[in-house]
Amino acid sequence: MNGNQPTTEYTKQLDEAVNLVKSSEERRHEYMIMAIRDLEKIAEGEYTGEIRGSVNTYREFDLDDQAIIERIMKKYDLNREEAEAYVLPKPAEAV
After folding, report:
1. Collapsing DSSP states into helix, strand and coil, what is residue 91?
2. Cβ neighbours of 68 (radius 10 Å)
3. How much is the pLDDT for 22?
4. In whole angstroms, what is the distance from residue 18 CA to residue 1 CA?
5. How far is CA 23 from the centre of its chain?
6. What gap in Å lies between CA 74 and CA 48, rounded to an integer?
7. Could you tell me what percent of the chain has a pLDDT over 70?
């Protein structure tokens, strides 16, 4: 526990539980997979944010939606449907 030995019964039990999980190869593998997924989600969020930033910049320069779609398709290697999802308003949901 932070390099210190557990001093109470509770911290001893906690230390044993932590050591048990750390020694489990299956748990270590699960943790590694979760960490990789987290990093992938972070990268995906950064990529999405970059595209949205580009869309906003193009709008500030008064480009029309079709011109913006064409530019982000080229810049980010998106297909038309992916690019339109960033640019065009989503249809209102049915009530």
Report:
1. coil
2. 22
3. 78
4. 9
5. 29
6. 15
7. 93
Q: Which residues have CB under 8 Å from 66's CB, separation 6+?
A: none
User: Taking the complete model, does pTM exceed 0.85, yes or no?
Assistant: no
Residues 41, 76: Cα–Cα separation, whole Å? 18
3-class SS letters over 32-45: HHHHHHHHHHHHHH
Nearest C-alpha neighbor of 53 from the set 37, 33, 72, 31: 72
Q: For 18-73, how does the pLDDT look when each residue is reduced to its tens digit (9 = 90+)?
A: 888 778 888 888 889 999 999 999 999 999 999 999 999 999 999 999 999 999 99
* Integer CA distances (angstroms), 77 to 11, 29, 38, 73, 82, in order: 53, 33, 24, 5, 10
Q: Looking at this protein, which amino acid is placed at residue 40?
A: E
Please check whether residue 83 is in contact with residue 69, taking contact to mean a CB–CB distance below 8 angstroms. yes
